Amino acid sequence: MTIMREVICIIFVICFGFMKVTYVYSQVKKDFNMLLSSNGFGAVVFSTVKRKIVAFFPSIYKQYDEKTPPVTSILRGLDYIIDINNNSIKLSDTTLVDVNYIPGTGIVKAIFRTNDIDINLYVFSSFLISSPSFIVKIEVFTKERGILSVIRSLSYSGRFEVKALDEKNLGQYIQVSKDSTILFQLSSIKDDNEKIYIYDYVIASESIDVCKNILNFYLSDSKDALESEMSFWSDWHKETKIPNNLSKDQLDLYKQSLAFIKMGQVREKSKGYGQILASLPTGVWNIAWVRDGVYSIIALILSGHYKEAKDALTFFFESDTGYYKNYFYNGTNYGIGMDYKISVCRYYGSGKEESDDNGNGPNIELDGFGMVLWAFSEYVKKSEDAIFLSKYSNLVYNYVALPLMRNVDEFGYIRPDSGPWERHIKDDGYDGAKRFSYTLIMAIKGLEELYSILKYPDLESTKNTLKKTFLSHFIDEKLRHIFESYEHIRRGIPKYIGGSTVEAINFGIVDKETALKNLEAYEKYLGIRNKSERYGFMRNLDGGWYDSQEWVIIDLRIASAYRKLGLKEKAKNIVNWIEKRALNAFYMIPELFSNDEKAEFKGAVPMLGFGAGAYVMYLWGY
Q1: Is the whole-model pTM more than 0.90?
Q2: Domain 248-619 is found in CATH 1.10.510.10
Q3: In this predicted model, what pLDDT tens digit does every residue of 192-222 receive, in sequence order?
């Protein structure tokens, strides 16, 4: 598609400051260069490099279903031209002095400066609007007087015509398709003596009439959009439970981590409602994996945000699954073998089960079943939601617990699956279904937690069988190291070491001696120490580049294990490193740091369950 450029001009004459224009560059030096705001419907992206809005996604997930193309940005760029007494400059050509989130919110605040004028730019996708949308507030400060005009500079994909809404040309719209429209509406300029300010509203919906109705929420009631959004986040955080003894930086990072999870929960009214993505659209993993979602759910539960946790669990139970009941490879059925309710891998935005196939078969993962049992039980116990328990207990038992238990063989092993690192079914040396410790650990945890609320005898007996199998056959008798999978035994030390096994420590499945032996092994074989302040870990030793980078989820879960064992200094060393990096990246916790001295942000940014969620869990000692 060609990129069409359209400059939309709305000019207001007011008394304002005269200035001489100069062109300068950004003073913001961070480890990441994009900030994103989402309301669960759409997402807007601000670039610190281009110093302007560079993307607007009409949905926050990657793809609605297998029949539709991946979601792409509607906009290529949105900039503003400030003209004072015929001296014009693009906002992106002024100095970007500072930019960050207002902590604990989805509101991005950027401060620009040029000579005698200061400009604040606020960008946010409002949770008060149930549609893909974002709002821009521009505040201009100056002591001098003069004539001001504001001009919107817009670039977008496609051969579309920008049409005026009215004779004053205050609003324009683009008809993207027969059922998709984008409205742009500038408010009138207001002067409160200290500053001049103006709002720009951008709304996407199925028709121009719907867009207008949404816009009227703000325009007809004289609401101040920024103040309203600040109030929304303030009210939301009234429910936030705060761990003890947090520093100011930790509190800001904690609240922002929760805000990211909130922004990553889909709110579209469909079967996809409530799903929590692994990352936001600035990352590559804006897809709802079961595993990532559960870590986010646990974080929401611990922090007191039961509604969002409940919505995410409801999504699991109401989603469109069951497509891998049978999957045969070389005469073996790697499918679930019966009706089930939890995706074997991840979900489309529509709520339909998805599993990718790289030529070695799909990912069919069983760890998600145990994880959902854990999250469901944790929610019921913490929230005391008896109605939710009554509504879903039979479904959880029959379509989550039973399918998991039916995949335990006569020897007490869970049959081979794709595991936490998504090893496709066919074995090529890298891929290949195995009996992963992580799957077994999550099954033990999930069945134990579900038994605590349902008291069904088969839940406890199966849990006991699996725990006995794990302790007897998945741990090196001499060294006490946990094998990443049963099949890893033949690879020997250190190839059988894997960071995901740390959850056996966090869940109290192994004794203290075994826990300490494994923490020593993680340090020795998985540890990354190429910077004096760095305390990080790879995820395993039998993969490629991706596996051998520093994995933040492994860092944080190992830190939690150290903390549980009273090794607080070791835990702090790991977490201080992550906190320092996140605070220099707009509170964003990445999927990876590169395994070199640069320790660059790699993979998806920000990660939600594997980043923000795991950080919240650590702060709660979980």
Answers
A1: yes
A2: no
A3: 777 888 899 999 988 888 888 888 877 766 6
